[in-house]
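Note to self: keep these together.
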Amino acid sequence: MKKPENIFVSLQLRKDQTSGGLLLDIHFSKEAPNVSVDQETVSWCPTIEELDFIGEVFELIAKGKRAESQVRSATNAVTSRQVDEGTLLDRMMDKKDRRTVATGDR
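Structure:
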C-alpha cells in the first residue's frame, strides 16, 4: 500500500453518550501547511487526499449502518412472520370452533 501523502488530519470514531450514535471527530495539527491560525480564527483548507480519506471513512460507517439495518430488518421480518403464523393459527382454530358449534360436529 502506498504511503498517504498530504494527509495532515487524524480521525477519531466515538460513540455519542446522548444518542448512542457514532460520531466522527477530525483532528488537525495547527502546524500543518493547510491550516492557518490567527487571533480569532482557525482556517483549514483540506487537501484532496484528506477529503478522500474522510470520504472513505464515511463510506465504511455507512456500510456498517446498512449491514446493521439489514440484520435488524431480517430479524424483524422473522419476528413478524412468527407473529403472523401464530395469528393465522389462532384464526383457524377460532373458525373451526365456530363451525363445530354451528353444525354440532364434534
